[in-house]
Amino acid sequence: QVQFVESGGGLVQPGGSLRLSCVTSGFTFSNYAMTWYRQAPGKEREIVATMSRTGGNGNVVYRESVKGRFIMSRDDAKNTVYLQMNALKPEDTTVYYCKGVFPQHDRRGHVWGKGTQVTVSP
């Protein structure tokens, strides 16, 4: 059974940093690209960053608004993906989720974790 367990969120002042973690299980982690998403209440879910599988090109693609501030990484030995968030802004406030990049129509693509809340406020 595929699972994603996000953690590391919290309350931080603007300009501060947080490191999110996502522990996965139920699939061969090293074979799949991973994505961090975020979704604020009443807004559409948006992709924050996507990282290829380790055997791929190793590239990470970031959304424009987080480039230069966020760093995504993975540890295949721990089946875990991370999101280091620096220079946080109030507009980064929302719930963050991680997810595997599965083939279209793959049922595992419908599984979401509970997310972790990030709040950036003075």
Q: Could you characterize the architecture of this molecule?
A:
This protein is mainly beta and 122 residues long. The protein has strands spanning 3-7, 10-12, 18-25, 34-39, 46-51, 60-62, 70-75, 80-85, 94-100, 116-120. The chain has a six-stranded mixed sheet with strand order 2-10-9-4-5-6, with no helix packed on it. 28% of the residues are buried. The model has no long low-confidence stretch (mean pLDDT 95).
In DSSP terms, counting alpha (H) and pi (I) runs of 4 or more, how many helices?
0
What's the rounded overall pLDDT mean?
95
* Residue runs with pLDDT of under 50 for 5 or more positions: none
Shape: globular
Q: Give the total of beta strands.
A: 10
Q: Termini separation (Å)?
A: 40 Å
- How are helices and strands ordered from N to C? EEEEEEEEEE
Helix content: under 10%
Strand content range = over 45%
Q: Work out the radius of gyration.
A: 14 Å
In this structure, how is the largest beta sheet organized? Answer: 6 strands, mixed
Helix/strand structural class: mainly beta
Strand order of the largest sheet: 2-10-9-4-5-6
Write the layout of secondary structure elements.
Blueprint (H helix, E strand, L loop, with lengths): L2 E5 L2 E3 L5 E8 L8 E6 L6 E6 L8 E3 L7 E6 L4 E6 L8 E7 L15 E5 L2
Tell me briefly what this model is.
This protein has 122 residues and is mostly beta strands. The chain is 0% helix and 45% strand.
Brief descriptors of the model:
45% strand; globular; 0% helix; 122 residues; mainly beta; single chain; four-stranded antiparallel β-sheet; six-stranded mixed β-sheet
